[in-house]
Amino acid sequence: MCWLLFFVHLILLFFQVPTCKSSSISDLFDSWCKEYGKTYTSEQEREHRLKVFEKNYEYVNQHNIRANSSYTLSLNAFADLTNHEFKAKYLGLSPSASDLLIRLNNGPAAIDGPNFVQESDIPSSLDWRNKGAVTGVKDQGSCGACWSFSATGAVEGINQIKTGSLVSLSEQELIDCDKSYNDGCGGGLMDYAYEFIIKNKGIDTEEDYPYRGRDGTCNKDKLKRHVVTIDSYGDIPAKNEKKLLQAVATQPVSVGICGSDSSFQLYSGGIFTGPCSTSLDHAVLIVGYDSKDGKDYWIIKNSWGRYWGMNGYMHMLRNTGTAEGVCGINMLASYPIKTSPNPPPSPAPGPTRCNLFTYCSSGETCCCARHFLGICLKWRCCEAVSAVCCKDHTHCCPHDYPVCDTKRNICLKVCFRLS
Asked: Peptidase C1A papain C-terminal domain: which residues (predicted)?
């Protein structure tokens, strides 16, 4: 019997050997999940994500042991996503629109920056963050609205340069309301965002019209709050890195890039050199430039939160000798133009009047709680603008979910009838 137990013990030891690495990866994965607050709906889903994580772990290790690489990778917040999943969730520059603008930029209609600083006055390095013209890093989440973050970042920059005031602007307003050509979380282009701001005579603040990370109904009241304005915008001729440098020396500049490579997904620091495609699928903001160890680079502000790159930023190689630049950064650059002052602050909306003697606070809707012969005897206030008052005289629903289901105490967007 003893020899049998000994034999079983040897078998167990034998099978433990190849699982050591798996066990250490599993422990690392558990620590990673805690660090980034990741949870999964089932054990099956967790096992799938663990396998993806292990593949990314091997990819990161293989890259980082290369002695000649100028940048490093890490198991960042995207380490449980395949590259295909990552591309589907976090990129949102419209390829068809970008191709159109690239063709336009090659023609005589391209605006090449008559108000840029002179080439002789361009400093050897510049960081608009140090000049107070860059807001904090934002996080678009899984909404493909990178175009809106790039556009607001450029407008925030030129507004601070012209007025001395750094105001964080609303990407959500662009996502909800800019529907002529852009498609919210489905993708868009910065030039169309600039056109929208110009036609709307301004854009609201991030604080007043906060980001929700999903498509929504345009808030018409907040659409009228024109806190920051621009007068025009310009497109830098494609493949003209000298003109791009001139533009960045003048203000932060929106650019399209290819951000779908695995190395871009897992980037953590250093000067990014690729390899990557020049097929544009992501939008970022150039906020400066510098040099290190003989390599020139752009300072890129991304919109994937502080857990990506260098606290949300990337250094990308410039002066590569290729017309397109790394990841196509020289191919689709644009910038807002501001010459007029911002309008005076909009007056705060007053209280909502229910009748001669009854008022609700600003942003609320009057709903009748008790009536007799068509006359409301008692009013109550619903905490929503332009809300729908339910027939039970107790509940109310927001205007974009106007169907009252008082039995379940919920509001519906569309009324479904079962046959």
From this structure: 122-337
